[in-house]
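Progress narrative, Year 2. Work on FAD-dependent thymidylate synthase from Paenibacillus odorifer advanced from sequence curation to structure prediction during this period.
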Amino acid sequence: MTTIKVLNEGYVRLVDHMGSDLTVANAARVSYAKQSFELSDRDIKLIKFLAREGHTSPFRHAITQFEVYAPLMVARQWWKYVVGSAHYEGTGDSLEAWNESSRRYITEEPVFYQPAAGEWRSKPENSKQGSGDIIAWELGEKYTRELQEYTELGLSKYEAALADGICAEQARLFLPAYGLFVRWYWTASVQSVAHFLNQRLEHDAQKEIQEYAKAILSLIEPLFPVSFDQLLTTGSVD
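Result:
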């Protein structure tokens, strides 16, 4: 399984990867001119030690690449991890790259995320961010309908601007932004992915990005089972 559907129209696809748990162990041993050719109990103990003690540089030698299709509100939360990837305390550059599709060059049919009537959440009682319980269905149905009408209005103005010869990079200003699905490639080290997962799998993370984090974990954990078991257990990449 290399693709997982998320939020109906969205998905996460594993494009490529380099390395394994053995890569992590060998990267740590190179200073002693040692190398393993098959993952052993000794290598597993070493990976556990590295994660427990916060020696994270060996985890940056294993790389993963994903294609993600998600609403803009998710993409912009995710993007913070790329911006901050060179600023983890004591770790240096954690190896991340991001390339996103742009409506400057293409005019593919816009797709929007619209919560169903039973998916709207209330504001939290004791926090300025996040969300609370599901609101009453009747109120949710009202806002689903209003969002759909608002989206259709923006879409019609976007299409009219294109038809009148307005360039795509300006016509896109009519598209309602935060629910618009965008597509990007995310290339990141095992350390970077674990840092993302440690924060976005938490119960207080935005639900929509939690769903994408779960998809990332399902795709990457079989490739690096020991590393992720340790990095997500110890939280040493936070």
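The chain has two domains: 3-105+183-234, 117-174. The beta strands are 3-6, 10-18, 63-71, 96-100, 181-189.
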